[in-house]
Design brief:
about 270 residues; alpha+beta; Immunoglobulin-like; C8orf32 fold; 2 domains; 5-stranded antiparallel sheet; Bac_transglu_N; Papain-like_cys_pep_sf
Amino acid sequence: MRLAIDHTTHYVFSGPVSRGLQRLRLKPKTSAGQRVLEWRMSFEGAQLQVEYDDAHCNHVALISFDQGVQEVTIRCEGLVATNDEAGIMGKHSGFVPMWQFLEPTDLTKVGPRIRSLASAVPQEGNTLATLHALSALIRERVAYSTGHTNAETTAEGALAAGRGVCQDHAHVFIGAARSLGIPARYVSGYLMMNDRIEQDAGHAWAEAHVEGLGWVGFDVSNGISPDARYVRVATGRDYQDAAPITGIRYGALDETMHVKLAVEQQRVEQ
């Protein structure tokens, strides 16, 4: 499958920005099941400073705002070829040791709700089956619903609310998997929807490390392992490591952000 992606993020600030830096993790990485054919990034109101790969092998672009700017636009356009690998990403790579994916983070730390959830997971006799059972249980306990959580909501908080979005589902899965002694990590990326092209935001899911298979993906929100409709962009211990855009600015107090995202299959003429 060939997926065409057009992703624009537009910021409007309440006043002139004296200084601003943003770290972008927006370029997909060629890995198991996907190959980046084309990718372009363009900016209005900002300049590219440097590009590099971080410890998780995520491609990172660092941009600086033009002095006094009141609007900034970041646009990514690209084409990615994908295959259905049943969610199996294979062996571990990068400079982060495996034990790091067993350690708690602020967003995934284990509390009484995570422990209770993990203890309720049916013991299926093998790790892969246990993880699928965990994914299904989280989907029952945390209904997909927008407007109830934010980027700072913890796994414990999402469980307490009983509602959340894909980011929350991933964090709950990661926390519970780690409590069961299974390394787990966060994935940010894109998903081609079957019913529409235009979307409000990117997607997120989790991966767990299974002996003999390596990293395997679990999209709790949709109840499946990622297939050819998914494009992996960044991975990390939690959202903070894989967030598409993070940064700092000085000057204007408030901002408004608008996201325009289109993901569609490109037809190849014979």
